[in-house]
Specification:
188 residues; alpha+beta; two-stranded antiparallel ribbon; 6 helices; 24% strand
Length: 188
């Protein structure tokens, strides 16, 4: 009886530990992975020298939603973007909210420029559709910087994130609601 009780207690403790680990890697607002989880995935892929694509997404005009409609509307937009990202990626991909209105999407094994551009275009199209919050439209768009691990020699996580940040800046500079693929250190 004692052994049975101890086994049950161990199973409950293991379940609680797994749940705590999952919560530590999840953004509570969007249900996506958080920055810590994205960093772990990125580090694992770089260490394994596995090919992957990375998209760095920033919402355009998000501040205007918060300023005019309030933070509840902003939270609604972030939750909606989280749902859109989950719908647009595969189970083995990692979509993470890394801060405020910034997201990364890590796509293991996906390095084809045309495929990455098509995924980014679908995401931008979906995010650009008006979202209605309490009868009021929330209009945002998304700018995406895309990098491929195969374009960098011996890529590391910091190098990939810096390249994706440059690509994102190029997308915003190109007029927002754009996706720009960096090839090495230059937009492709």
């Amino acid at each position: 009886a004692v052994t049975h009780e101890l086994r049950g207690l161990n199973l409950r403790l293991e379940g609680a530990r797994l749940q705590a680990e999952e919560e530590a890697l999840t953004d509570p607002l969007t249900g996506l992975r958080n920055r810590r989880a994205a960093d772990l995935v990125l580090e694992r892929l770089c260490t394994a020298r596995a090919p992957f694509g990375l998209m760095h997404l920033d919402l355009d005009f998000f501040k205007a939603v918060n300023d005019t409609l309030g933070h509840a509307a902003g939270d609604f937009v972030l939750e909606t973007v989280g749902r859109i990202l989950r719908e647009q990626i595969r189970a083995e991909d990692c979509a993470a909210r890394i801060g405020g209105d910034e997201f990364v999407i890590i796509l293991p094994g996906r390095t084809e420029a045309q495929t990455l551009q098509a995924i980014a275009a679908r995401i931008i199209t979906r995010i650009s559709q008006p979202m209605e919050f309490e009868g009021k439209p929330c209009q945002v768009s998304g700018s995406i910087g895309i990098v491929r691990s195969t374009d960098l020699r011996a890529p590391d996580a910091a190098q990939i994130m810096a390249a994706s940040d440059r690509a994102l800046y190029a997308a915003k500079h190109a007029g927002r609601a754009q996706a720009v693929l960096m090839s090495g250190d230059t937009p492709a």
